[in-house]
Design brief:
The chain is mostly helical. It has helices at about 5-10, 15-20, 35-55, 55-70, 75-85, 90, 95-110, 115-130, 130-135, 140-150, 160-165, 170-195. Helix content is about 70%, strand content about 0%. The protein is globular and about 45 Å long.
Length: about 200
C-alpha cells in the first residue's frame, strides 16, 4: 500500500495519520521517540505492510510484475493498489478525493514541526504535484512512477509497468477490492489493539 491507502486506513485520528504517513523513514524502535498517537500510526503502518506483503491476493497481483521488475514489483504494486483506491474512492469515503487530499495536506502543514526531516523534504513535491489525487489517473500514475525511477536511479523502468496495468486492469482491480476489504477489517482490529497503549 502506498500513501493514500496508509492515510485512509488510519481513520479519523489526525496524529495517527501523520505517523502512518511518515513511518517508512522511522527505523527500529525509534518510534518510541514520538508522542503516543504518532507512535500508534507508525505501528499501524508496519502492521499494514506485514499484512499486505504476506497476503495471497496481493502476492498474486505482484507475481504478474515480478519477472520484469523483480524487487521493485512490490513498489509498483503498492502504487497500483493506491490507484484502485483512488478510482473507487466513492465506495470507501463520503468525502470527495480532492477535498480529502487538501485536508490532509493542510494537516501536514499545520503539524510541520512533528514531521521527520524526510517528510518535511517530501512535502513541497507532494503538494505541488498533488500526489494523492494523481493516483486516480493513468497519467498521474505514470508521473509518480517516473519520479520513482528517478529516485532509484533508473535501476528498472517502473513507468513501463503502465503496460501491465492496462493489460491486466480488470484482474488487478478485482484483486484489489477483495484484498482491501480484508485489510480494512485488519486495520480496524489493529487500531482497537493500539488504542490500549498508553
Amino acid at each position: 500500500m502506498n500513501f493514500l491507502a496508509h492515510i485512509y486506513l488510519s481513520g479519523e485520528n489526525d496524529l495517527l495519520k501523520i505517523g502512518n504517513f511518515m513511518a517508512d523513514s522511522i527505523h527500529g524502535r525509534n518510534y518510541n521517540n514520538f508522542q503516543i498517537e504518532i507512535k500508534k500510526g507508525i505501528l499501524l503502518h508496519r502492521s499494514i505492510d506485514s499484512f499486505t506483503d504476506t497476503h495471497l491476493i496481493y502476492r498474486q497481483s505482484k507475481h504478474r510484475l515480478h519477472e520484469k521488475y523483480g524487487h521493485y514489483s512490490g513498489v509498483i504494486m503498492d502504487i497500483f493498489y493506491d490507484h484502485f483506491l483512488a478510482t473507487n474512492w466513492n465506495t470507501y469515503s463520503e468525502i470527495k478525493l480532492e477535498e480529502y487530499a487538501q485536508n490532509f495536506y493542510k494537516l501536514l502543514q499545520d503539524h510541520y514541526d512533528l514531521l521527520t526531516e524526510k517528510a518535511q523534504g517530501m512535502l513541497p513535491y507532494m503538494l505541488g504535484r498533488n500526489w494523492l489525487v494523481s493516483y486516480a489517473t493513468i497519467e498521474g500514475l505514470q508521473m509518480i512512477l517516473f519520479q520513482m525511477d528517478h529516485r532509484t536511479k533508473n535501476r528498472v523502468d517502473m513507468h513501463e509497468s503502465i503496460v501491465e496495468l492496462k493489460h491486466y486492469y480488470t484482474e488487478f482491480e478485482t484483486e484489489f477490492k477483495l484484498f482491501f476489504e480484508e485489510l480494512r477489517a485488519h486495520c480496524a482490529d489493529k487500531i482497537k489493539e493500539l488504542n490500549q497503549l498508553r
